[in-house]
Structure to design on (716 residues):
């Protein structure tokens, strides 16, 4: 028996062993795309038909085993009806069952990543041998679905309900130790020995030295739980997971329910339960949107990687300013292996910058993610200085000094004279025009914006801002540096607020209007958090800093006076004038009290109502919950449309990813434009027009109206 496919090759080894090898031609990884599944069907049929086969070895010809199903095909599958989807899953189940039910044992040699459908297939083998240093897992819940090729059925039977729930609901990857401990794999060996060890195990089983039939039966029998244990495992987990995931992410709970329903049944009766529940999840907007975000992320990274090829590879960088942002940038660069000179004008600032980096590294050591030696090496890559001594050697300088135009201009002009021509200068300014900052420079082509988000080590987005004179090469080098830092860069054109803040401030303007009409800001926060935001607008303003937001609001008002006017009294100004700067000084819209770990915890502050009263209408406006959400979200969506039309950003996908990664826009809604598409542009424009008396903040663009009329969408 031999089989030569594009993704799978089969051959007979000595002693009646068939080797089924995944090796997707022309790709660096193995994945279960439609073609691979078709070939697997043929290969399995060929193995089944050959009476000489007495054992099956499953291997990979790549560094990974199988990274999962092909996500690029998901949205096409999801368009099928629930019944069609369930029927398709049962077909795949039947294929995996054939392997599990072979009258001979099988062993999967997991030499590298086995994720999602890849791990699910490995679970159908009788045994699994895993290479040390690799990871396995079922990340499907992160895409709004759950393991649907028998994963919930087999994992719960192999590892017990508790472990299966943790693996499936958490969606994390697990190392060999954890995998072995829970029983997901049967042996762990060095990478070079995986195939040999798998063969050895297979021969043991074939020779009857292992009771492999009992192993298969264990996977096919109902779960070994009495009713009390089942109740504890499933009911307890459901409540806990539901609380953690929240109502907008239903798939982890649906997975647990499917496991629970299938627990008392044999494999063949449990699989249809899993398939039906999976199909239900695949049809949710959450699944569609999370898959879109996954694909959008890949698309944005592809754009960035392509751009970066035209730039200089940054071997050494520098940052000016060792404050919150400069310190964060130095940490990020050093921990990603890029040396960085950190310059400040004040020795204490340098010390603070370094100690912050050391604190972050210390936390990673505590979590077992870093060794003390790695920490020392990382800190060694940050060179603190008060002088310009090393600047002749760096490829890129990030300017992160105070947000004052004249200071920045002076610093940039100064540093320009200290670096080699071609070294890119990038400003981390949040509010100053990149084109204007370039005015005093000799080589404005080498200058652009590189806008990080706070905290730098956590926030994935970096806006790379092209000023009027910025060269393509400077953009390319900066994009490459952002990628090297593990960030997702989105290139945008210069305008007040760039992309993300330009879209955020109309939302804050809407907040000020609502509070001005007497709406309780606690209610606004509650409703927007229910909508899916990680924090409501008042809380977000506190986190950003009331003073910072106040300054930025003034800049935005100057840039877009027609819709972001800031001249009257407002809730934001009331907080600012009361010296309530938000989390940074422990009081803003809320007050902040450090918990036992020192993390500031917010609580309502009775003083605030009195401070807001002078900027609020005496008789509060009567607005429904839906009105409030629309009043907040419409300006953000309309400004998103404007940014796209004004060419501030290249594509709807880049815009949506920027909002999810830079603002925490609810991922299950897929981004502002995808959300708008889901609501429907016609409905959206009608809703906006109902609020037109409030000003241009609520005025849809002409292009939005055209699209609405034509039944079009932002995303194609
Ligand atoms: P910060 O006040 O914490 O730090 C500024 C640092 O710059 C200080 O350590 C100061 O000593 C130093 N500095 C001042 N003049 C200097 C000079 N001539 N040379 C070298 N160092 C000098 O400020 P920050 O919050 O880190 O902000 C820095 C920049 O990043 C600002 O442009 C800000 O708008 C921008 N930014 C801030 C955030 C944020 O949330 N904090 C987010 C994005 C962008």
């Amino acid at each position: 028996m031999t089989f030569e496919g594009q993704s799978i090759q089969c051959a007979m080894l000595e002693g009646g062993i068939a080797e089924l090898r995944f090796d997707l031609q022309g790709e660096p990884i193995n994945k279960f795309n439609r073609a691979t599944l078709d070939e697997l069907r043929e290969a399995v049929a060929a193995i089944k038909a050959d009476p000489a086969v007495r054992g099956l070895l499953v291997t990979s010809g790549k560094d990974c085993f199988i990274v999962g199903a092909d996500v690029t095909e998901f949205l096409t599958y999801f368009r099928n009806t629930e019944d069609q989807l369930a029927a398709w899953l049962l077909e795949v189940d039947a294929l995996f069952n054939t392997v599990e039910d072979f009258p001979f044992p099988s062993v999967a040699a997991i030499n590298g990543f086995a994720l999602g459908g890849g791990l699910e297939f490995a679970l159908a083998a009788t045994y699994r041998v895993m290479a040390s240093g690799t990871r396995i897992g079922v990340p499907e819940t992160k895409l709004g679905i759950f393991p649907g090729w028998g994963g919930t059925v087999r994992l719960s039977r192999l590892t017990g309900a508790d472990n299966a729930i943790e693996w499936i609901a958490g969606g994390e990857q697990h190392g060999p130790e954890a995998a072995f401990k829970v029983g997901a794999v049967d042996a762990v060996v060095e990478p070079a020995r995986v195939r040999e060890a798998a063969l050895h195990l297979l021969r043991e089983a074939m020779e009857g030295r292992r009771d492999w039939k009992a192993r298969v039966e264990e996977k096919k029998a109902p779960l070994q739980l009495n009713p009390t244990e089942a109740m504890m495992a499933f009911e307890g987990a459901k409540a806990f997971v539901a609380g953690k995931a929240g109502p907008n992410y239903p798939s982890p709970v649906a997975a647990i329910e499917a496991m629970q329903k299938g627990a008392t049944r044999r494999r063949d009766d449990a699989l249809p339960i899993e398939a039906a529940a999976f199909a239900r999840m695949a049809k949710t907007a959450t699944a569609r949107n999370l898959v879109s975000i996954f694909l959008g992320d890949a698309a944005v990274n592809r754009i960035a990687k392509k751009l970066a090829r035209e730039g200089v590879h940054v071997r050494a960088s520098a940052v000016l300013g060792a404050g919150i942002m400069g310190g964060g940038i130095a940490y990020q660069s050093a921990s990603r292996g890029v040396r960085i000179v950190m310059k400040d004008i004040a020795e204490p600032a340098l010390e603070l910058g370094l100690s912050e980096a050391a604190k972050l590294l210390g936390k990673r050591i505590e979590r077992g993610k870093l060794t003390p030696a790695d920490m020392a090496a990382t800190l060694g890559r940050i060179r603190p200085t008060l002088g310009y001594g090393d600047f002749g050697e760096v490829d890129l300088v990030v300017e992160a000094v105070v947000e004052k135009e004249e200071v920045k201009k002076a610093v940039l002009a100064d540093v320009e004279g200290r670096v080699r021509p071609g070294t890119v200068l990038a400003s981390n300014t949040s509010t100053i025009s990149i084109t204007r900052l370039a005015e005093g420079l000799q080589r404005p082509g080498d200058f652009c914006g590189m806008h990080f988000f706070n905290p730098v080590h956590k926030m994935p987005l970096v806006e790379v801002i092209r000023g009027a004179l910025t060269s393509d090469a400077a953009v390319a080098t900066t994009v490459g540096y952002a990628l090297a830092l593990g960030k997702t860069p989105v290139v945008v054109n210069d305008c007040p607020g760039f992309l993300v803040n330009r879209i955020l401030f109309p939302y804050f303007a809407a907040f000020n209007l609502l509070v001005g009409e007497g709406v309780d800001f606690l209610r606004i926060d509650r409703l927007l958090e229910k909508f899916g935001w990680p924090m409501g607008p008042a809380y977000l303003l506190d986190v950003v800093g009331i003073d910072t937001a106040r300054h930025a609001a003034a800049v935005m008002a100057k840039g877009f006076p027609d819709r972001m006017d800031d001249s009257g009294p407002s809730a934001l100004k009331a907080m600012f004038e009361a010296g309530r700067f938000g989390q940074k000084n422990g009081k803003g819209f809320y007050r902040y009290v450090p918990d036992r770990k020192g993390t500031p915890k917010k609580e309502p502050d009775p003083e605030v109502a009195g401070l807001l009263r002078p900027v609020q209408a005496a008789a509060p406006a009567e607005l429904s919950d839906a009105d409030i959400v629309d009043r907040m979200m419409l300006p953000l969506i309309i400004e998103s449309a404007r940014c796209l039309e004004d060419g501030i950003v290249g594509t709807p996908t880049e815009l949506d990813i920027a909002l999810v990664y830079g603002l925490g826009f609810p991922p299950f809604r897929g981004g502002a434009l995808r959300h708008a598409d889901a609501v429907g542009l016609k409905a959206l424009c009608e809703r906006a027009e109902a609020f037109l008396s409030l000003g241009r903040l609520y005025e849809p663009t002409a292009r939005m109206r055209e699209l609405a009329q034509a039944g079009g969408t932002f995303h194609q």
Observations:
- The radius of gyration is 28 Å.
- The chain has a mean pLDDT of 97.
- Residues 3-283 form a domain with the 2-enoyl-CoA Hydratase; Chain A, domain 1 fold (CATH 3.90.226.10).
